[in-house]
Structure formats: structure tokens, C-alpha cells
Automatic annotation (TrEMBL):
InterPro entries: Rv3654c-like, Tad_N. This is Helicase/secretion neighborhood TadE-like protein. It comes from the Bacteria. GO terms for molecular function: helicase activity. Residues 1-56 are annotated as: Disordered. Residues 61-106 form the Putative Flp pilus-assembly TadG-like N-terminal domain. It holds the Pfam family Tad.
Length: 169
């Protein structure tokens, strides 16, 4: 039995060389260098350009999606900042009007001119601009405005009205 051939021994000369990876080359060019793990049988020529697969056509698609998502986040952030600026301006106008009305109410018994002058000064010191000032009996009613830039190039005005006078019982 020692002279009998085993099937594995008979096919040893027919075995294929291990699969080699081929570096990318232009059609008709010769790949040079030995690829590790191969038998080094020599240069390999490409006969056809590599086929374009569906995954090759989709390259870069995730980058575009990521940019779109980033743009959405920036837009939402800008919208939130604009809403916050508008609310802050409205609150600032209300504070300026309240304090201006209180300042005017302290001078209302003297005359209307002194009351409105004091209201305009205090309203201006609080970042507002006096639009209207009138006396309703002993009450001072003023309207103040504050300008706000919601977005670059988009300026709006927030207004508020306040009334102040003596305590009624």
C-alpha cells in the first residue's frame, strides 16, 4: 500500500496559486511589485477597466446628508436666537415703559410737561424711546419702543404701554 497514490498527492501539481489582489492600474499598464502572500509569478495585466458598482455611484452620499442635517440645525438655531431676541426686546420695552411711567407719575401733579420730560429721560436710560406720553387725570400713560435686530438685515421694533399714578382706594 505504500506504492498506492493518494488523491491529494496526484492533484498537487494542478492546484491554483492563491488569489492575488491587484493594485489599481490604468487599462494596458503593468502592475509592478510583488503583492505579499502571492507566489510572485510576475506582472498582471488588466484587460478591462473595473466595473462600476452601485456602491461606487453612492460614494459621498452620506456627506451630502450630513451637510443637510447640519444646515437644518443651523437654521433651527438661528430661528431660536431670533425668537429669543424678540422676547428680550419686548421685555426691555415693557421695563422701559414701566419705569418711565413711574418717573412721570412722580411729577404729574406739577404739570404734564415735567411728567413727560421725566418719563422720556428714564425711558431712554433703559434702552427705550418714548413714543407717546399723556396724562389721564393724575395717571401718566406712556408708550415706549425698543429696536431689535432679529437677523442680520432684519430689524423690528418692540413696543409697550404702561400706566402709573396714585393709588386709588
Amino acid at each position: 500500500m505504500s506504492g498506492a497514490k493518494r488523491p491529494a498527492d496526484t492533484d498537487a501539481h494542478r492546484r491554483r496559486a492563491p488569489h492575488r489582489t491587484v493594485p489599481d492600474t490604468a487599462p494596458g499598464q503593468v502592475a509592478t511589485g510583488r503583492v505579499p502572500g502571492t507566489s510572485g509569478l510576475g506582472p498582471v495585466r488588466r484587460r478591462h477597466p473595473p466595473a462600476v458598482t452601485a456602491s461606487d455611484r453612492d460614494r459621498g452620499g452620506a456627506s451630502v446628508c450630513l451637510l443637510a442635517v447640519g444646515l437644518v440645525f443651523v437654521m433651527v438655531g438661528m430661528f431660536g436666537a431670533a425668537v429669543g431676541a424678540a422676547r428680550t426686546a419686548r421685555q426691555q420695552a415693557a421695563v422701559a415703559a414701566d419705569l418711565g411711567a413711574l418717573a412721570g407719575a412722580g411729577r404729574a401733579p406739577a404739570d404734564a410737561e415735567a411728567a413727560c420730560s421725566a418719563a422720556a429721560e428714564i425711558t431712554g436710560r433703559n434702552g427705550g424711546r418714548l413714543l407717546d406720553c399723556r396724562l389721564d387725570g393724575l395717571d401718566v400713560v406712556i408708550t415706549a419702543e425698543v429696536g431689535v435686530a432679529l437677523l442680520p438685515g432684519l430689524t423690528r421694533v418692540a413696543t409697550a404701554t404702561a400706566r402709573a399714578g396714585p393709588l386709588r382706594s
